[in-house]
Amino acid sequence: MSRDKLSRLLLISAACVATPAVAQEAQANRGQLEDIVVTARRTAEALQDTPVSISAFSQNFLERQNVQQVDKIAQFTPNLVISRQPSSLSAASILIRGIGQTEPSAVAEPGVGMYLDGVYIARTGGAILDLVDLERIEVLRGPQGTLFGRNTIGGAVQLVSRTPTDDFGIQEKLGYGSFNSWYTKTTLNTGHLLGSPFKATISYQHREKDGWVDNKLTSHDPYGLKSDAVWARLHGDLSDSLKLDYSFDWNKQKGQPPYFQLVAASADVLNYFSRSASLGGDPLIFSRERLRDGLQEGFTDTRGNYRWDSRSKSVGHALTLEYDASKALTLKSITAYRKFDQDTILGLSGNGNLRGVVFDATSPTLTSVQRVTTYQGNNAPQTQEQFSQELQATGEVGDFKYVLGAYYFYERAEEFNHQFLTIVTPVTGLTNFGFPAAVVGAVQALNPGLDLIGINAFPPAHFGGTADSYALFGQASWRPSALDGRLEVTGGLRYTWDSKSLFIDNDGNGTPDVRGKTRFTNLSWLGSVNYKITDEIMVYGRVSTGYKSGGFNPRTTVLNSFNPEKVLSYEAGLKADWFDRRLRTNLALYYTDYKDKQINQFASGTGGATSIILNAGKARIQGVEFEATAVPVEGLTLTGSLGYTDPKFKQFAFRDPVTNMVIDVAHEARFSNVPKWNWNAGAQYSFPSFGFGELSAQVNYSYRSKMYFFPLDRVNIFNKDVASPGQGTLSARLTLSNVELGTRSKMEISAWGENLANNDKLAYGIDFGGLGFGGAYFAEPRSFGVDVKLTY
Predict the structure, then answer these.
(1) Cys-Cys link to 767, which of 62, 431, 564, 718 (CB 3.0-4.6 A)?
(2) Closest CA to 679 of 698, 647, 700, 702
(3) DSSP secondary-structure letter at 598?
């Protein structure tokens, strides 16, 4: 990073103090900022004492921002991108500092680890679950290869559910908003059960909404949703030293995927599908603007039912035992089982029942008019189940604190993708798809004047695999008492053994089935130094490594293996509270060396949606993260965050399909799903207390710069057309809280608005360049609503 560029970034970061963003901490009495306790290093410590670039969101913040799923926190977090996959209700692409994974298959490894109550959620396919009863969310940026280990090469997202309270209580929350969206959430705190050492929290949430795009073919509108979720947590103080926690989560979703619009196409594809109406089919819909109505076809699923909806279900169990033997030794065991099922109607055509002239060997003219589509299908079943066991030993001995542990993980996953697509070609181009010249000549002779023809294809994709992972890890921190505990030196190691297997069922393709097994090992390490200049100002430096396992690509008909990817990251930071804790600023600068980056080169053609995964080469990523919270006067809280990511390939190996030679195209390659800038600014004002309640108002604006979804334009010819442009989101909320309803009951009521500027926000794009088109879906337009919370 040049000196001039670094100077400009620091100036911009400092300017954010005046208009900061990201409400992360609750405001304390007398206008001071409170500490947030986090577990970024597997032990509880204050956010400002943790030498890691981390954002923490409290329960109060999550409720005030109405965060019901994890993808929304990307609006408030520097250098975090969470993009919902188009067809699925629960699949996401999650990246931190430009590192992550965009492939949602059942056997693809994420690059950012997601954890619920310390349990690793292994599949991005089930990452967007309903957040029913959270205490906080922690976003750890940079590789967390020592303490978290498996596939945390980009960072980790920790979801921490709320601990049961000592007293009995009931909370009911209701909400209604635009597009007939509504929800109800009931939380029961049992208090201590019948005088026992156990107490529990049980929460149930139901939410529904109509789609905001009117599907003229059916009442099943895109973006419609019905979701039910149950979270439960049981806590028991079995003795002064022994504690037990059991967590359960269950989430079932059913709804229509987003409206995936056709936004780019070749001249032949546009010409061919535009003839649909003249052949008795629906008219072609092609638009680069966000549409509010359209025609969305369904698909016949594996049971023979014609459907428009996708479905997903996840369930998780976690048992945590903690034994506090002494200050020098605390033992913890985390045993967990999770299962995920998905049945997805792909919904990637953005059109109704199109008709076109296709090749038909049974017809006297070798052609007939049939139903055609750009791309549609049913991904079912997609299943995954996992078991994990983690053992930890933590403690403090003299000037040293330590964490030791062992980890075991096993998973099994399977996916069956039924696809339907129409390949469009000039009649003379049939020879490129294996048709004999005599057949092509007969088609021309029997159909004079026919220029374009379709080939209907139904390629299956059935695959699955297993993964075993073992790890030993340790980390120790030294705070010499001679320096009053101001200096801390930390080192850590983690050794991992990974084993993987894959099968690809090529039945129906005329290709032999594929099976493969592979193994990998890795040693990750960390070293950091932090020093407290004063009680309120800490500087730190950190060097760490990360590793994401290699494996096999399932979206081919052959055995496509790839190696692990690794990073070496350097980070320096400053965490400070100023002016009697009325201003908090956290700044981090980082530089990452990226080796053997796994590149998913998405392709499309006669085999449907396919890809090739390869280790493209080397890259470097550098950037800045800044967060600030200020309380300039009592009642007013200003918040701010800024993220800058500057990735660049040093080497990108690409096999040219024309010459079959491997060439270096680093100069033209992009990082996919990585905006260069994202920032957020917000303000909240709590008015002086009224006699009947407390009124507060908040406004928030977040911005993300342009983002591409594919690395190479030469492979994905519509990459620029489906890219997400720079876009912002303006939201506001007005809340009246602490309204007394009797002696033990209180009410809170809020009115809110989202995307108040009504921006056309392109959320995700896919380039089906091999099929001659590209498509995208848009985020929700302007919406309003009201929430009511009753507490007893």
Answers:
(1) 718
(2) 702
(3) E
Domains and their CATH numbers in the chain? 3-791 (2.40.170.20)
- Two tokens, residue 576: 């400070």
Length of the chain: 792
Give the amino acid at 618.
Answer: K
Cis before residue 257, ω within 30 degrees of 0? no
Kindly tell me if the per-residue pLDDT of 3 is higher than 70. no
User: Which has the closest alpha carbon to 68: 138, 128, 154?
Assistant: 128
The answer to whether 782 and 756 have CB atoms below 8 angstroms apart is yes
Token duo for residue 677:
């800038």
Burial of 658 (C-beta count, 10 Å sphere; 0-12/13-18/19+): exposed
Query: What confidence score (pLDDT) does residue 17 get?
Result: 35
Give the pLDDT score at 27.
43
Paired residues of 452 in beta bridges = 426
pLDDT score, position 602: 59
Residue 123: the pLDDT is 84
Span 380-400, mean pLDDT? 96
Q: Which of 183, 279, 289, 162 is nearest to 226 (CA)?
A: 183
- 315 touches 249 (CB < 8 A): yes
Do residues 106 and 383 make contact, with C-beta atoms less than 8 angstroms apart?
yes
pLDDT at 607 exceeding the cut of 70: no
Task: With residue 611 as reference, give the H or E element that holds it.
Answer: strand 608-615
Q: Are 337 and 368 in contact (CB under 8 A)?
A: no
Tokens of 238: 């079995």
DSSP-derived pairing of the beta strands 214-215 and 293-294: parallel
Query: Using only C-alpha atoms, what is the Rg of the chain?
Result: 27
Q: Report H helices in 469-606.
A: none
Phi, psi values for residue 544, rounded to 5°: -150, 160
Dihedral (Cα; 39, 40, 45, 48), 10-degree rounding: -140
Do 261 and 763 contact (CB within 8 A), yes or no?
no
Q: Amino acid letter at 75?
A: Q
Burial 158-196 (b: 16+ CB within 10 A, else e): bbbbbebeeeebebebebebbbebebebbbbbbebeeee
The CA distances from residue 631 to 293, 562, 636, 734, in Å, are 45, 51, 6, 19
Task: Provide the CA 459 distance to its chain's centre, in angstroms.
Answer: 28
The CA-CA-CA angle for residues 37, 43, 49, to 5°, reads 50
Instruction: Locate the DSSP E strands across 147-295.
Output: 155-161, 169-177, 181-192, 198-209, 214-215, 225-237, 242-255, 261-265, 293-294
DSSP character at residue 48: G
pLDDT digits (tens, 9 = 90+) for 190-231: 999 998 999 999 999 999 999 999 999 998 899 999 999 999
Asked if residue 509 lies in contact with residue 460, where contact means CB atoms within 8 angstroms, the answer is yes
Model confidence pLDDT, tens digit, residues 76-122: 999 999 988 888 888 888 999 999 988 778 888 899 999 999 999 99
DSSP string, 128-150: --B--SEEEEEEEES--TTTT-T
Rounded CA separation 694/552 (Å): 57
pLDDT in tens, 300-332: 988 899 999 999 999 999 999 999 999 999 999
CA distance linking residue 752 with residue 131, whole number of Å: 19
Handedness of CA 302, 303, 304, 308 (dihedral sign): negative
Buried b (16+ CB within 10 A) or exposed e, 333-359: ebbbebbbbbbbbbbbbbbbbbbbbbb
| CB-count burial class (<10 Å; 0-12, 13-18, 19+) for 531 | middle
Q: 0.90 cut: is pTM over it?
A: yes
Query: What are the residues facing 406 on neighbouring strands?
Result: 391, 472
> Of 781, 786, 784, 787, which Cα lies nearest the Cα of 292?
781
CA dist 531 and 110 (Å) reads 33
- The H-or-E segment that residue 269 falls in is helix 267-273
Cβ count within 10 A of residue 490: 20
